[in-house]
From TrEMBL:
GO terms of molecular function: peroxidase activity
Name of the featured protein: Cytochrome c peroxidase
Taxonomy, superkingdom: Bacteria
PROSITE patterns referenced in this protein's UniProt entry, alphabetically: CYTC, PROKAR_LIPOPROTEIN
Primary location: periplasm
UniProt xrefs under Gene3D superfamilies: Cytochrome c-like domain
Signal peptide: none
UniProt-listed SUPFAM superfamilies: Cytochrome c
Subcellular location: Periplasm
Domain Cytochrome c: 211-337
Keywords: Heme, Iron, Metal-binding, Oxidoreductase, Periplasm, Peroxidase, Signal
């Protein structure tokens, strides 16, 4: 009997070990790097992935560089300082970005998500290639206040980077082009496409909207969808939404194009993860969604180049929203939140 009991114990132990091994192998597959994947309900990306294929080594290098404070003049500010994952890679709590020596920027830190589908970058445009985008914050006086050349010098002095560059690009040589491509590979992987909205659209696991969410969705399609086009919830355009000029008179796209017809036009932001990205607008002047609703309801100003959608023949039209409509619209907008995106371990500083 004792022998039989011992064999039963050993057999059970063996089964447990086998099950644990299988579970570990399954988890390894889940955690395995899968590269860039287009979500089923998304259009084709704008970024030319053939020119910079996302590899695991390139992504890991890009992640290290994203959180690298040596990108700033005094080695205190990284990309991740103003783009915090828990806030969908915005700088939550700040109306405008804070750079080295706590210098104040002029615009709110935009979220870093779904950049593969962007044609233009920055609130005021002027950059049309993701591989070139990091130059702006690195060299801006109020942000990192550094030169790209000096960043390369500093990186070459860090023991881990030659090996990481070799793994990613086949050579230990640290160049600006490789540096930019690595950062792009990390940012390209910041894909947010697993919200309740996405699951409902893909009909995953029976996901569906509540009555209020569905009513809010209908309101959204009627009043907001022209500019905040599904499924990215932005049409990528630059528009004047009737905000009064800021104290510094930021004229948006005009500063990049010098075309009078572009004054006060700013990039239409995505509404994805909107619960995590307050405050709102290019200068963070509106602290809540209700403040945004009130702006469109009664505070639109007739500034130059006001978007035609906010005008009518007799003057400003705005977007009328009752208290009930605001409540239902808020219910829908919360379905765009992607908790998995803001907690993904592979995107966090290691």
């Amino acid at each position: 009997m004792k022998k039989r009991a011992l064999w039963i114990v050993l057999l059970c132990f063996g089964v447990m070990l086998y099950a644990c091994k299988k579970e570990s192998e399954k988890q390894d597959k889940v955690n395995a790097f899968s590269g860039f994947k287009k979500p089923e309900n998304f259009p084709d990306p704008q970024y030319k992935l053939a020119n910079n294929p996302v590899t695991e080594a390139g992504f890991l290098l890009g992640r290290s560089l994203f959180y690298e404070p040596r990108l700033s003049r005094n080695n205190t500010i990284s990309c991740g300082s103003c783009h915090i994952q828990s806030s969908a890679f915005t700088q939550h709590g700040h109306d405008v970005s804070h750079g080295i020596e706590d210098r104040l920027g002029t615009r709110n830190s935009p979220p870093i998500m779904n950049l593969a589908w962007n044609k233009a970058f920055m609130w005021g445009g002027g950059i049309y290639d993701l591989d070139l985008q990091p130059i702006a914050p690195i060299t801006a006086h109020e942000e990192m206040d550094e030169s790209v050349e000096n960043v390369m010098v500093k990186l070459r002095q860090v023991s881990k980077y030659p090996g990481m560059f070799k793994a990613a690009f086949g050579s230990e040589e640290i160049t600006t082009a490789k540096f930019m491509k690595a950062l792009s590979q990390f940012m390209l992987m910041c894909v947010s496409a697993d919200s309740k909205y996405d699951k409902a659209m893909r009909k995953e696991a029976g996901a569906s909207f509540t009555a209020d969410e569905q009513a809010g969705y209908e309101l959204f399609k009627a009043k907001c969808a022209t500019c905040h086009t599904e499924p990215l919830f932005t049409d990528g355009s630059f528009r004047n939404n009737g905000l009064g000029p800021s104290p510094i008179d930021d004229q948006g796209l005009y500063t990049a194009t010098l075309q009078a017809t572009d004054r006060y036009k700013f990039k239409v932001p995505s509404l994805r993860n909107v619960s995590y990205t307050a405050p709102y607008m290019h200068d963070g002047r509106l602290l809540s969604l209700n403040a945004v609703f009130e702006h469109y309801n009664s505070e639109v100003q007739a500034t130059p180049n006001l978007d035609p959608l906010l005008q009518q023949s007799s003057g400003i039209k705005g977007i009328s929203l009752s208290a009930d409509e605001r409540s239902k619209l808020t219910s829908f907008l919360k379905t765009l939140d992607d908790p998995g995106f803001i907690t993904r371990k592979d995107l966090a500083e290691q």
